[in-house]
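User: Structure tokens for this complex, please. No commentary.
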Amino acid sequence: MTWYEDLPKIELHVHLEGAIPHKALFELIRKYGGDPSVPNTAALKKRFEYRNFSQFIETWSWKNQFLRNYEDFIYSAMLTARDMAKQNIRYAELFFSPSLFVRHGLEVQYITQSIREGVSQVPGIEIRLIADLVRDYGPESEMRTLKALNEVKNFGIIGIGLGGSEHEYPPAPFEPLFREARKMGFFTNAHAGEAAGPQSVWETIRKLRVQRIGHGTNVYKDPKLMDYIAEKKIPLELCPMSNVRTGAVTSIQEHPIRKYFERGLIISVNTDDPKMFNTSLADEYRMLVEECGFSKKDVCQLILQGIKSSWMWEGRKDYLIYQFQQESSWKSIMGDERI
Ligand SMILES: [Zn+2]
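Assistant:
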């Protein structure tokens, strides 16, 4: 194991549907008669290369057709959690997008129950769920999903997010839905500033009043927005390699993460859809050190920022930080230093 793999980590922006290990996904494809475009796992890996964001969204939908019944959710959730635990990810807030599957006859409640059943079988990692609503389906349809989610909160759903085609569907029409979600006691975040510019982030903050921004890759293009986010301490869930793979940034060296770090924004590092971007959380941190001017000490600092921007209760955060500081991989860089 490399230092990056060994290091205890947490993740706040990762989608179950994009984190299913290739072998498991290939098994699902085979279960449903196979697909001539992917005769083996190597071809599947190749299929997950994109020219732009639209092509990524298209491939995302293609892959989802192989999650057809509740057993598929138990199976993929269990193998995804196992894969995360193997990389020493101790805590994750995991997105899932029930609306995609409701359209194909499944029910929100049983999807949620199945995912919980799958992840519960894996020791060593605590997983909480964020239901990611889909912009493309419109606020009315997503309000129905929200109401169904509220009934099964006790399966560990702590938050509501908003994903899909940001460049085509602005956030404002979802204002009443987010108000309702807050009333129900959910935390909220939304993808913004990834496939659209700073205006989309402003609108997300003002209309949806989210507690975290997913991505925020284009925030730096508006200095006033940078100042606002710094002042209000709104955490950004950054996903560097995802942005490279979908073309949101031209290369990892061009990613604004270093700018944000130096400006003192609260940021976390995440993989988004690791298996669809051929990345891992360990790889993300390694890239930051090798390509973006971060030190290993900075990496520990980033992990602490992630814990602080998570939706755990405060005592739980302190305990997790304490646990991380006891690990030899952590101590080898930080010694007994407490940040
Ligand atoms: Zn995402």
